[in-house]
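Students often ask why inverse folding is considered easier than folding. One informal answer: many sequences map to the same fold, so there is more than one right answer. In these notes we will look at a single instance of the problem. The structure comes first.
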């Protein structure tokens, strides 16, 4: 784990850190070629500079976000924001269904919207894959 992400995890409560540690491990296994770093103050994974997934602490839960998640057509992911993102929220590590998570991570590689160029396109998203 890189030092910035480790520092992020170290600031979490014990319960939130357990969730974050599991998410980190599963995401790294599923996306071994993805760059991952702290972006906008939380851990995010990128493929070819495009944000794919990440997680962060919200009041009362940990939120897992998939930037293209609304296109996955998956139960367990709720729409987030005005673009194509979807989220899952966890208050305990026992709530993380790793079978679902692995399936979502597989789809995150296959289904991508081009967030990398959203500013250049003045808020318009184009499907990459």
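Output (designed amino acids):
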């Amino acid at each position: 784990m890189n030092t910035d992400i480790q520092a992020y995890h170290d600031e979490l409560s014990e319960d939130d850190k357990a969730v974050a540690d599991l998410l980190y491990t599963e995401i790294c296994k599923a996306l071994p070629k993805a760059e991952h770093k702290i972006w906008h103050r939380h851990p995010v994974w990128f493929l070819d500079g495009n944000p794919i997934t990440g997680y962060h602490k919200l009041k009362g839960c940990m939120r897992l976000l998939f930037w293209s998640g609304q296109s996955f057509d998956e139960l367990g992911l709720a729409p987030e924001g005005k673009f194509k993102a979807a989220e899952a929220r966890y208050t305990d590590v026992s709530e993380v269904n790793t079978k679902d998570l692995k399936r979502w991570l597989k789809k995150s590689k296959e289904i991508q919207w081009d967030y990398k160029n959203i500013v250049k396109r003045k808020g318009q998203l184009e499907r990459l894959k």
